[in-house]
Amino acid sequence: MMKFSIGYNYDLKLLSLLDVYRDNIESLYFPIPQIFLGSGRCILEPKGYLNQIPQIIKKCNSLEISSSLLVNATWEGEKGLSKSFFKKLLDYIRKLKELGLKSLVLTNPVYISKVKEEIKDIRIESSVNCYVKTVEHALYLKDLGVDVLTVDRDINRNIPLIKEIKERTSLKIRIMLNEGCLRNCPFRVMHYNYLSQKTNPSVSRPMDSLFVDAFCIQIYLRNPAKIFSVPFIPPDTLKYYISFVDYYKLSTRVFSTSRIELTLKAYINQDFKGNLLKILDCPGLSYFEYIDYRILKKNNFFEKMLSCSQRCESCDYCEFLIKRATLIGRGYLKRNKREEKKAVRLYRDALKISSDSKPSLYTGLSQAYFNLEEYRRAFRLADKVIKIAPKDISGYLLLGSYYEQLKKMKSALEVYKKSLKFFPSEATVYLRRAEVYFQLKKYRRAIKNINKVLHLKHEGIGIHYLLGSCYQRLKKYKKAIEEFKKEQRLNPKDSKVNFSLAKCYQSMGKPNLANKELDRGFYKSKNERNFIPKI
Fold first, then answer.
1. What is the pTM of this model?
2. Mean per-residue pLDDT for 11-33?
3. Which of 172, 432, 450, 461 could form a disulfide with 246 if both were Cys (CB 3.0 to 4.6 A apart)?
């Protein structure tokens, strides 16, 4: 029976999933706490995580599932190779081994050799972030002490090469199945170094304004068809690997528990129908809204990729899939009627047989109808989303947004008022109400709702700008300036904040300060297009 490795998402409810799928799960991997090292994923670590780890190991051992500790940062900081630091790291690993820890996933080759020397009878796996793409590299890692070799995701579809690595090293081979990162991504090394620093509290915090978690969106903006060269392995194609791959890893650390189950079931059953994006892991995939895997499968997608010459200039296969099976997110593409009609087709087909959650499908279909100006259908489907997912706020937000776009502000307010009966602490609803009141020129009511948003500790770009704009309309310029400056600290590249500050200073009779802000605003406007990805 084929078994899979899944990643811990900091949700203890995931442990109950192990009971259900114990026969299909080979290991559960989880990151080393950030008091030791950073991580290969930028996820907020809960306060009690250090104390969760013994519970995780105990649960895995009770089900004969391997517990696997990730030590997969690609940059450890200046103290990463110091004697005292490494002793602390080894002491922690020994402690977990005594509790029953079965394996370590390591990136740093120095750590691999040192751990092999110091700690016996624990399985050592190379991380996918070792970037193993050649037989020679694999042999080096074997000599250092690796027991299980994880090949680079870039060679996932190079079956002859993986077979050769297996034959020449005689190591156990693990492949990552569902990561959605670009093949040969030019940002990968830098990106993982950045993540390792950002999640390591012992190093200086990187500049948030410089690096983001979705550089690849800039590539998709130029060439959306690159999505099909992403070297993921679809559920129905595991038959190509079963004779020479020993372990199968699912990238799930940022997935909800329900999404982990959806992905796991797809690979257990070696079958999937519906939106491919539901089972792939990469923040850059947010560029896309829907990819119908049935259409890919019908057109022999994987077989085509296995024999792909990568001479895209003489082939239109991927462009065909973009036209037939793929929807670009509305935030990146202003859809024409032809695209919205394609959305209707894809969502209606998916609703007939899909394993996806139906609320998201009804939401997509509703939005397509709305943009086709078929409002009656759009509203009916939005109501349906609310009915079938009463514990989800998204249906109310969808319905309210429709009324806002149709300039029916009072109706929008009624929807948001109703939603607060069920979701009284939902900051997004108060923010939406504030925006509507601002449009209605009811600035004091808008301020009251924004303050509620801030009271709920909901921070984000645009909130302080809206609050400052309300104060500006009420001619409370000092308060407006205070809020605009808060917005500026959160979003320093936005020129409109400077222009709003200039108006306030001008109204206060401070032309010198106003002119300085105007100059800054114009400078930012001229330099909006630079090397930093705009997401």
1. 0.85
2. 95
3. 172
